[in-house]
C-alpha cells in the first residue's frame, strides 16, 4: 500500500493528467525515483496513464525515445532525478511539478524544472518534520499541508538511549534479530564536515562490526562513494543480500526496506533531534516490530534531555520544536543551506509571533504594491536596494 506524501502526489498527479497536463516528479536519487515509478505505476497504470523513468542509468537509445515521447505528449508522468533539469528535456504541456525531499534541491534547480511549463502548479514534499511556526518563514510563499498521522498498520518504533556499558547487550539483541531474518542499520556520527574523515570513521566502525557479526554480510556507505556505488549497495540491502549496513546520514532519505527493523545510532549526542527522528523513520516500514537504539556519551543535562525527548515521543513536530528550542535555528538547519535569517537581536524561537506579524505585513505590501512604487514604500524600497545591491531587481 502507498501512504503519506507519496499517496498525495499520486492523487494530485492523476487529477493533473486527467485535466490534460503532463507531470514531472523529481527525486534526489535514482533509487528513490525508481521506487516512485513502482508506486505510481502500481496505481495509475489501470487508468491508462503512462509513467516513465529518466535517470543517468538510461541508455542513449532509451533516453532519445523518452525525450521524443515526452515532447509529443505520449508520456503523462515523467519521474527522475536531476536528469529532468537538462535542456533537452522538453514537455509538451507541463502543468504539475512535484519535488520530493525538496531540501535536497537548490532554489535554482526547482526554478529550472518549474520553467519547463507555463506557470505549473507546484508541490514540494519533505519528510523532515520542522516546527510549524518555522515552516511559515521557510515556506512563506506556499500553502502548507501537514500529515501528522502514521499510516495504518505502521507500528510504533521502540526507542532506547544507552551508554557505552550496554554495548554487548545491544550487539546480542541485534544478533537475535538477524537470526530471525531481519536487517539492521548502524549509523556513524558526523565527525567533521570533511567527507574524507567521515569516510575513515565509517571504515573503522565497519571493521569492528564485520568481526562482531562475522556470520552475516556487513557493508558500508558514505558520502565519498560514487552515486552508482551507493545505489547498488542500497539495492542489495533492499533485496536482503546485506544484513548489516554501516552508514553516515546518507541513508536519512532513502528507499523503504520493510525487512529492516533495527536502527542503531552511534554517538547519538552529536546529532540534532530532527536528524535522529528522520533516521529512526528508516525502520518500522514493514510488518515487524522495530527498534531504535541511541548510543550516547556524556552526562550533561542537555544531552540527557535530548535523549529523553527521543525515547518519550515519536511525534516529529514535538521533537522539532524541542530541537529548535535546545539548539537554535542556526544549528537546526544550517542557515547557509536553508536560507534562514541570522538575527542580531531576535530569537527565532522566542520571537516567532513578531516574525509572523511582520510576514503578514510583507504579504500585504506585496499584494498592494509589488514594485514598491507608492510614496509610503519608497524608503522601504531604498533599504532593500541597499541591502541586496547587485543581487535583485525590483
Question: TL;DR?
Answer:
With 394 residues, this protein is α/β, with parallel strands linked by helices. It has helices at 4-18, 30-44, 60-72, 107-114, 132-138, 167-179, 195-212, 227-238, 273-280, 301-312, 316-333, 335-338, 352-368, 378-387; strands at 22-26, 51-54, 77-80, 94-100, 121-125, 158-162, 183-187, 218-221, 244-247, 260-265, 291-295.
The proportion of residues forming helix, as a percent range, comes to: 40-55%
Distance N to C terminus: 48 Å
User: How many helical stretches?
Assistant: 14
Kindly name the structural category: alpha/beta
Helix and strand arrangement:
Elements: H1 4-18, E1 22-26, H2 30-44, E2 51-54, H3 60-72, E3 77-80, E4 94-100, H4 107-114, E5 121-125, H5 132-138, E6 158-162, H6 167-179, E7 183-187, H7 195-212, E8 218-221, H8 227-238, E9 244-247, E10 260-265, H9 273-280, E11 291-295, H10 301-312, H11 316-333, H12 335-338, H13 352-368, H14 378-387
Parallel strand pairs: 1-3, 1-4, 2-3, 4-5, 6-11, 7-9, 7-10, 8-9, 10-11
Helix pairs in contact: 5-13, 9-11, 10-11
Amino acid at each position: 500500500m502507498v501512504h503519506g506524501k507519496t499517496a498525495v502526489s499520486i492523487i494530485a498527479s492523476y487529477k493533473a493528467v486527467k485535466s490534460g497536463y503532463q507531470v514531472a516528479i523529481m527525486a534526489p536519487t535514482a533509487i528513490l525515483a525508481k521506487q516512485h515509478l513502482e508506486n505510481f505505476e502500481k496505481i495509475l497504470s489501470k487508468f491508462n496513464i503512462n509513467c516513465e523513468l529518466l535517470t543517468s542509468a538510461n541508455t542513449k537509445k532509451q533516453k532519445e525515445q523518452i525525450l521524443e515521447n515526452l515532447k509529443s505528449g505520449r508520456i503523462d508522468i515523467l519521474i527522475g532525478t536531476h536528469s529532468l533539469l537538462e535542456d533537452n528535456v522538453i514537455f509538451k504541456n507541463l502543468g504539475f511539478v512535484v519535488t520530493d525531499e525538496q531540501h535536497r534541491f537548490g532554489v535554482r534547480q526547482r526554478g529550472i524544472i518549474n520553467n519547463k511549463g507555463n506557470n505549473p502548479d507546484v508541490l514540494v514534499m519533505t519528510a523532515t518534520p520542522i516546527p510549524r511556526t518555522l515552516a511559515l518563514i521557510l515556506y512563506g510563499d506556499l500553502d502548507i499541508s501537514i500529515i501528522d498521522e502514521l499510516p495504518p498498520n505502521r507500528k510504533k518504533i521502540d526507542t532506547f538511549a544507552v551508554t557505552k556499558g550496554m554495548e554487548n547487550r545491544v550487539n546480542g539483541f541485534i544478533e537475535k534479530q538477524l537470526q530471525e531474518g531481519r536487517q539492521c542499520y548502524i549509523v556513524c556520527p558526523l565527525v567533521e564536515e570533511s567527507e574524507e574523515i567521515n569516510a575513515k570513521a565509517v571504515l573503522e566502525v565497519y571493521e569492528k562490526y564485520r568481526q562482531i557479526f562475522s556470520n552475516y554480510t556487513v557493508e558500508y556507505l558514505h558520502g565519498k562513494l560514487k552515486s552508482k556505488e551507493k545505489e547498488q549497495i542500497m539495492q542489495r540491502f533492499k533485496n536482503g543480500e546485506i544484513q548489516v549496513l554501516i552508514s553516515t546520514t546518507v541513508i536519512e532519505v532513502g528507499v523503504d526496506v520493510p525487512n529492516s527493523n533495527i536502527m542503531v545510532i552511534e554517538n547519538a549526542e552529536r546529532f540534532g533531534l530532527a536528524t535522529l527522528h528522520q533516521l529512526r523513520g528508516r525502520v518500522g516500514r514493514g510488518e515487524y516490530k522495530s527498534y531504535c537504539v541511541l548510543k550516547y556519551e556524556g552526562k550533561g543535562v542537555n544531552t540527557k534531555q535530548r535523549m529523553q525527548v527521543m525515547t518519550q515521543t515519536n511525534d516529529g513536530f514535538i521533537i522539532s520544536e524541542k530541537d529548535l528550542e535546545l539548539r537554535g535555528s542556526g544549528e537546526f538547519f544550517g542557515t547557509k543551506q536553508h536560507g534562514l535569517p541570522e538575527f542580531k537581536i531576535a530569537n527565532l524561537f522566542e520571537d516567532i509571533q513578531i516574525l509572523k506579524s511582520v510576514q503578514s505585513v510583507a504579504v500585504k505590501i506585496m499584494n498592494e504594491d509589488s514594485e514598491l512604487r507608492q510614496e509610503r514604500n519608497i524608503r522601504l524600497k531604498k533599504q532593500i536596494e541597499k541591502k541586496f545591491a547587485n543581487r535583485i531587481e525590483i
